């Protein structure tokens, strides 16, 4: 990775559909060099894929929630069981294994407080290994998820 690769990644972060010609112009490399570098970063796993940022509120999921989860016991089988079950819930946007007082931090995307309540009472707390949950409702996003290139 050199400064050209970083600049290419910065362009793709801004717009994953940016044309090779536009990237080439911005980073001062030929189109073929940009294409080669992108293919190399894809092959090396630096670029894992391309995605779309979705405004969840505009599609009816305007009630995000963060949930901290503590398991009964920190055993490999409990972690595995919890992770398998949590992957099945469409409301779960992200789930992170954490250090500290909580075992997991989950980001949910729900349509309203009733949908969240149903998830909490019927799905999440029904997982046998869950010992405690703590919820936080965000007011607004100050800085969206961005990968740092520089």
Provide a compact summary of the structure.
The protein has 150 residues and is α+β, with helices and mostly antiparallel strands. It contains 5 helices and 4 strands.
Task: Give an account of the 3D structure.
By secondary structure, the chain is an alpha+beta fold. The protein folds into two domains: about 5-45, Arc Repressor Mutant, subunit A, CATH 1.10.10.10; about 55-135, Lrp/AsnC effector binding domain/regulation of amino acid metabolism (RAM) domain (Alpha-Beta Plaits, 2-Layer Sandwich), CATH 3.30.70. The chain is about 35% helix and about 20% strand. The chain is built from five helices and four strands; from the N terminus they run αααβαββαβ. A four-stranded antiparallel beta sheet has the order 2-3-1-4. Helix 1 (about 5-15) crosses helix 2 (about 20-25) and helix 2 (about 20-25) crosses helix 3. The radius of gyration is 20 Å and the shape is elongated. The relative contact order is 0.16. The model has no long low-confidence stretch (mean pLDDT about 90).
């Amino acid at each position: 990775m050199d400064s050209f690769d970083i600049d290419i990644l910065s362009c793709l972060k801004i717009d994953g559909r940016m044309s090779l010609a536009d990237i080439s112009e911005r980073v001062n490399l030929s189109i073929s060099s940009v294409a080669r570098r992108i293919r190399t970063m894809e092959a090396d796993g630096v670029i894992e894929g391309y995605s779309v940022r979705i405004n969840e509120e505009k599609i009816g999921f305007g009630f995000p929630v963060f949930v901290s989860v503590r398991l009964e016991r920190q055993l490999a089988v409990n972690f595995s069981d919890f992770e398998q079950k949590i992957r099945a819930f469409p409301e779960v946007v992200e789930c992170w294994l954490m250090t500290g007082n909580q075992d997991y931090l989950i980001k949910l995307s729900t349509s309203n407080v009733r949908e969240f309540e149903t998830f909490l009472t019927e799905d999440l707390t029904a997982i046998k290994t869950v010992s405690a949950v703590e919820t936080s409702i965000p007011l607004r996003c100050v800085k969206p998820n961005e990968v740092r290139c520089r």
